[in-house]
């Protein structure tokens, strides 16, 4: 217990250290002195934030959001620097539901890592920065910095990848509310210089991490080098089991790679998984596992710990059995999927449910073949 508490204090110190790594300006220091120490939010305030996040209009329905996104994409597409903070003028144009048209100003910026590289994607992933006053009483109400997962390439299979990735998030939502919400979009990109439509493609809006944290009654913290023992034991099991279920091996708690940490008021750290395009469930052509993990394909399921006997995981695995029919129904009902992929996905998911019902196979997955690789 003492060792764990010591590590928690060390991790907190690392997080605070990053805040004070650069010397504060005189103005910032003065403002800090005037404001005094920050008061922790009251339980009532936390409940209010949670209710607001849960009620975001963007995630209130599953119907795709249809809109035009105007911007100078010749210029924007050249911004491939992962550290770039440049913002570009843009405009969202969409029906207002009353027979008219909404025109919402927005700042566009590029984001990401793998999909930002020109060798991987011809079309950049985007972030839409709104002013909250401009989106009040629209589908974007309450949003300010909104990630849009874009189609990457104009080839037909990439159009379907968007739908597959969206469904992976919906599957996660069925298993646990401690997951990112997503909304499918149908986006028509318009060149601001000529006013001409460039192309219409699928996209996916991803819930802002701050709203994910508010729904979990906490806040996002940037604490690296965390180990399994430093975070909530139930939440890391939930994360790792789901990762094995969907074939997600491209994550690292220690490096905060495709993982966000949510800290609750009591100091409890809750890891949350995201970024599904490299999973076996989505099954993109470019998803290749790290060679250090010892698997040849992301469809080769790998449980990355904490290693447990399946009898210790009964409470977690029960949720999969409970939601089996609902999960498979997603793949029956969702438009935009190739029939071959639809069948393959359902068969691959069904293999998991069979594994859970076979004690020997379950023991092999969660204990005997368990691979803990914190740095990968």
How would you describe this protein?
This protein is of the alpha+beta class and 376 residues long. It is built from eleven helices and ten strands. It has helices at 2-19, 26-35, 43-54, 73-76, 156-175, 209-215, 233-246, 314-322, 324-333, 339-356, 359-368; strands at 65-71, 88-95, 101-110, 126-129, 145-149, 182-191, 197-206, 218-221, 259-264, 269-273. A hairpin with a 5-residue loop joins strand 6 and strand 7 (197-206). The longest helix has 20 residues, at 156-175. The radius of gyration is 22 Å and the shape is globular. It starts with a helix and ends in an 8-residue tail after the last helix.
Write a concise synopsis of the structure shown:
This protein has 376 residues and is an alpha+beta fold.
């Amino acid at each position: 217990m003492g060792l764990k508490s010591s590590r928690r204090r060390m991790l907190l110190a690392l997080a605070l250290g990053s805040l004070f790594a650069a010397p504060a300006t005189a103005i910032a220091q003065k403002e800090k002195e005037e404001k005094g120490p920050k008061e922790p939010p009251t339980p009532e305030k936390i409940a209010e934030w949670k209710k607001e996040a849960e009620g975001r209009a963007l995630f209130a329905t599953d119907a795709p959001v249809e809109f035009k996104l105007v911007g100078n994409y010749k210029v924007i597409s050249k911004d491939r620097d992962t550290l770039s903070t440049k913002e570009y003028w843009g405009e969202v144009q969409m029906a207002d539901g009353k027979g008219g048209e909404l025109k919402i100003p927005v700042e566009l910026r590029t984001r990401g890592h793998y999909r930002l590289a020109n060798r991987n994607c011809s079309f950049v992933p985007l972030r839409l920065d709104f002013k909250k006053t401009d989106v009040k009483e629209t589908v974007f109400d309450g949003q300010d910095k909104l990630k849009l997962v874009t189609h990457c390439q104009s080839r037909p299979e990439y159009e379907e990848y968007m739908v597959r990735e969206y469904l992976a998030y919906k599957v996660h939502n069925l298993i646990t509310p401690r997951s990112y919400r997503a909304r499918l979009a149908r986006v028509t990109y318009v060149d601001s210089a000529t006013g001409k439509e460039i192309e219409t493609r699928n996209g996916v809006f991803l819930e802002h991490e701050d709203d994910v944290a508010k729904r979990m009654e906490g806040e996002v913290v940037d604490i690296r080098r965390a180990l399994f023992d430093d975070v909530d034991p139930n939440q890391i099991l939930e994360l790792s089991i789901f990762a094995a279920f969907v074939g997600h091996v491209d994550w690292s708690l220690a490096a905060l790679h495709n993982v966000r940490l949510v800290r609750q008021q009591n100091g409890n750290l809750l890891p949350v998984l995201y970024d599904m395009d490299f999973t076996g469930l989505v099954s993109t052509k470019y998803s290749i596992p790290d060679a250090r993990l010892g698997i040849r394909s992301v469809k080769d399921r790998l449980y990355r710990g904490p290693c447990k006997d399946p009898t210790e995981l009964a409470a977690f695995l029960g949720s999969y059995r409970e939601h089996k029919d609902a999960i498979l129904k997603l793949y029956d009902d969702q438009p935009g999927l190739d029939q071959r992929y639809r069948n393959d996905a359902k068969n691959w998911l069904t293999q998991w449910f069979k594994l859970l019902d076979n004690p020997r196979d379950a023991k092999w997955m969660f204990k005997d073949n368990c691979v803990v690789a914190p740095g990968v």
